Fold:
Amino acid sequence: MKLIGFNINKINAERKENNFSNLKIENNIQIEDISSTKSDIFKKDEEIIQFKFLYKLDYKPEIASISFSGNILLLVDSKEAKSILKEWEIKNISEEVKLAVFNIILRKTSIKSLELEDELNIPLHINIPSLKSKKKD
Structure:
């Protein structure tokens, strides 16, 4: 399985509230569709699988939200493509494929999320260790 394309089609970021007490940050990744296509560029026993996704960060209760929608293109062998598409017919994805796709989404959207959080002046969705110096005894 090789990543050959990643596209973000829509980004939405909104801050609704200034009060961050009782803040809870939830994230959610949804695979909205999976489809296949062939290309003359690649080997005949390989197919391109497109995963349409929605990734959302919710800052609850109703404080802010950030979302990304887009698609990922993965090059897989024909046998794996058939397996992925067959599972998707019942809206299921194997854990191995899901893990790979989710990791790509998180890797590609995390930096953009941090930039948007900075622009909106909202708390970060991941913990970044402090650079404070340790006290010497």
